[in-house]
Automatic annotation (TrEMBL):
GO terms for cellular component: cytosol. Keywords: ATP-binding, Helicase, Hydrolase, Nucleotide-binding. Transmembrane segments: none annotated. The keyword Transferase does not apply. Residues 179-519 form the UvrD-like helicase ATP-binding domain. The keyword ATP-binding applies. ATP binds at G200, A201, P202, G203, T204, G205, K206, T207. This is AAA family ATPase.
Length: 672
């Protein structure tokens, strides 16, 4: 056995060789020119591809080129193990690195099929390998390694994994590519056509898994997905900012990220929860379909087209038959176009009967003629989604017709505007309205589908919002991530089967139960709320016991206690999140200011470099901080209808320690 230092020296040499090779690959990519393209458009396209390639080959100093190594088990060889085809040694890293001259692989991409063993091999199934080695890095330097024999008994928990999880958070979220766990890896490598839905307790790695699956799919189906696109949907801008560095660190620079508001349009109005709850239900899809098609009316008159001295007629019943045959069989917009064409075609048949020989151009002319347009505008008028929704929410009689048998009177009353705007142009739209408008848009004209959608915090989306997302992966697939216990909206999901049904995707639901973020003591404290918010869910487990991580204190002066706790937390390493009721943000920020503690208030923009962040409770979802201070749980719980679920989210943001400060009684549900 070589001495530890000799092993380290050899591995460092391999790292240096790989770095040099990557530099050469990048230089080569930079030397390529887009001039070979024949025209301006192709040149632009090629140039952007080359730029992406160069960006993807960047050597991120903080993200080591490889993190693991596997040694083949030559004793097994051949047989079913497949060991005969395996390389003697493979290094697993963020991307392929090869030696330019001989094309010799120095590092294999973690997403390559052969790399799967790094995540999945174990004593139960060594997959042809003898040894797994994990590397520890510090500031880009290889500083440690840890060997795990794959023959023989199971090894204990990996020190490198624990250290990786406990490493203080400073900036945005990091990738977990070096330490993906076997059950996470199963989800990451699910095949492209498969939609997977992951129910996971706080900190089980759902977000991480979703992002890594996107990277995996892009690698495995590069061309198809480059054409059709991959989109990550997250709850808010602060969250998207937090996760934005993960995919680029994995070499994927072309993935879009959006909130549901980015996709559907930002709301310009608010409304009572009763209204949005009704508007969020899937029944609204039927109401909208009826409302739209009510615009197609029975023709009262026929059609007369004059060409030269000739007149051609269609009787009213003929026009009616044509409209009836098309009604509801296509999208509204294409139905309208087809209606015009069929009317014109009937006229053409009459022309032919009279001995004329009209061609396609004549049909087009007739279809665009004034009389046909007149019939079109009266029978099948052009409508915009805004016009239809405006009419629906402003006109009780029209709503009554569209919602008959679908919404009862109270529900209709809940969504009708008490004081409608003057017209659809001046109407203001809520978040729920945006999803309705999107549904209408799709009923008029088909929405384009992407190749793959990753939907995070999916439990918070309404049926109508899920339908909107479903349209955007109609011919693709999705990764749906969430936690039923963290549902904080009026329309939060109660079952993943329903979520998948609204999304229109057939998928498997899997569960992640091992928490990586939150220490055990903190998780147990938060889990006291579970019977009250999601009784059917299992209690989450934590990877780390976290003795001493939780402190719950009743204090006479909340403001002063919060400042003191923040100061104490700042004395320890890592990020500090001070999570407070939204209404109390300004007061706490002012107190920190007065105490001279540098801080920022978390908002939609980039966080900046401050270690101490004041976090409004409603923005904490999906985020994490090393030290968390929560002020006044009762006020957080009381601030909204699903306040206990919000409190559960807030109490599960800590990686290292949670300090709960309260002047009022804790919510009874927390006194387990
Ligand atoms: N296999 C892993 N190795 C190292 N760290 C991990 C692993 N899995 C998850 N983590 C870390 O655990 C933390 C929580 O992960 P993540 O945010 O993805 O969880 P989540 O399930 O989305 O949580 P929440 O429901 O609270 O939003 C992150 O810091 C993540 O990097």
């Amino acid at each position: 056995m070589p001495a530890e230092s000799a092993v380290l020296a050899a591995e460092r040499a391999h790292l240096a060789e790989s770095r040099a090779a990557l530099r050469r690959m990048r230089e080569h990519a930079e030397s390529l020119s887009a001039d070979v393209a024949g025209d301006w458009v192709s040149a632009q396209f090629l140039e952007s591809l080359l730029e992406q390639r160069v960006a993807a080959l960047a050597d991120h100093p903080g993200a080591p080129l490889f993190f693991g190594r596997m040694d083949r088990d030559d004793a097994v060889g051949g047989g079913d193990s497949g060991a005969g085809d395996l390389p003697a040694v493979m290094y697993v890293g963020r991307r392929h690195v090869h030696d330019g001259d001989e094309g010799r692989p120095l590092v294999l991409d973690w997403r390559a099929p052969v790399s799967r063993a790094f995540y999945q091999a174990g004593p139960a199934d060594p997959m042809g390998w003898r040894l797994r080695r994990r590397f520890g890095f510090s500031g880009g330097e290889l500083t440690a390694f840890e060997d795990e024999p794959l023959r023989g008994g199971a090894a204990g928990p990996s020190r490198i994994l624990t250290e990786e999880i406990e490493r203080p958070r400073t900036g945005p979220m990091r990738d977990i590519v070096a330490t993906i766990q076997p059950d996470q890896d199963e989800i990451v490598r699910a095949d492209l056509p498969r939609t997977v839905c992951v129910q996971g307790a706080p900190g089980t790695g759902k977000t991480a898994v979703g992002l890594h699956r996107a990277a995996y799919l892009l690698f495995t189906h590069r061309e198809r997905l480059a054409r059709s696109g991959v989109l990550i949907v997250g709850p808010n801008r602060a969250f998207l900012g937090y996760i934005s560095a993960v995919l680029p660190a994995l070499g994927e620079v072309g993935v879009e990220q959006a909130t549901i508001d980015d996709l559907l349009g930002a709301p310009t109005a608010e409304e009572p929860a009763e209204a949005s709850a009704v508007k969020g239900e899937a029944r609204m899809a039927d109401v909208l379909r009826k409302a739209l098609w009510l615009h197609v009316t029975k023709p009262a008159e026929g059609l007369v087209v004059t060409r030269g001295s000739a007149r051609y007629r269609l009787a009213d019943h003929e026009v009616r038959e044509i409209a009836a045959a098309l009604r509801g069989t296509t999208r509204y917009g294409s139905g309208r176009a087809a209606f015009a064409q069929r009317l014109a075609h009937r006229i053409l048949v009459q022309m032919e009967k009279r001995g004329e020989a009209p061609d396609d151009r004549v049909q087009e002319q007739v279809a665009r003629s004034k009389p046909v347009k007149h019939v079109l505008d009266t029978v099948w008028p052009k409508v915009t989604p805004e016009q239809v929704l405006y009419r629906l929410l402003a006109d009780p009689a029209f709503l009554g017709r569209a919602a008959k048998g679908l919404l009862d009177e109270a529900e209709q009353a809940a969504i009708l505007w008490p004081k409608p705007a003057r017209s659809h142009r001046s109407a203001r739209w809520t978040a729920a309205d945006r999803a309705l408008l999107d549904e209408l848009r799709d009923l008029v004209e088909r929405t384009a589908s992407l190749g793959h959608l990753v939907v995070d915090e999916a439990q918070d989306l309404s049926a109508m919002q899920l339908r909107a997302l479903g349209r955007r992966c109609g011919t693709g697939s999705a990764t749906v991530l969430g936690d039923l216990a963290q549902g904080t909206t009026a329309w939060s999901a109660r079952s993943w089967r329903e979520v998948l049904a609204h999304l229109g995707q057939d998928g498997d639901v899997t569960e992640l139960t091992l928490g990586f973020r939150v220490p055990g003591t903190v998780l147990d404290f938060a889990a006291r709320l579970l019977p009250h918010i999601a009784p059917a869910l299992e209690r989450p487990r934590s990877l780390r016991p976290g003795a001493g991580a939780l402190e719950v204190r009743r204090v006479p002066d909340l403001g002063a206690a919060v400042v003191a706790a923040a100061r104490e937390a700042l004395a320890r390493p890592g990020s500090v999140g001070l999570i407070v009721p939204d209404a109390a943000v300004a007061a706490h920020a002012a107190a920190l200011e007065a105490a001279g503690l540098e801080h920022a208030v978390l908002g939609p923009g980039p966080g900046g470099g401050t270690r101490l962040l004041v976090v409004p409770a409603t923005l904490a979802k999906g985020l994490e901080y090393d030290q968390v201070v929560v002020a006044e749980p009762a006020a957080i719980a009381a601030a909204e209808a699903r306040g206990l679920a919000r409190l559960y989210v807030v109490l599960t943001r800590a990686v290292t320690s949670l300090t709960v400060l309260h002047r009022d009684e804790l919510p009874a549900e927390l006194n387990g």
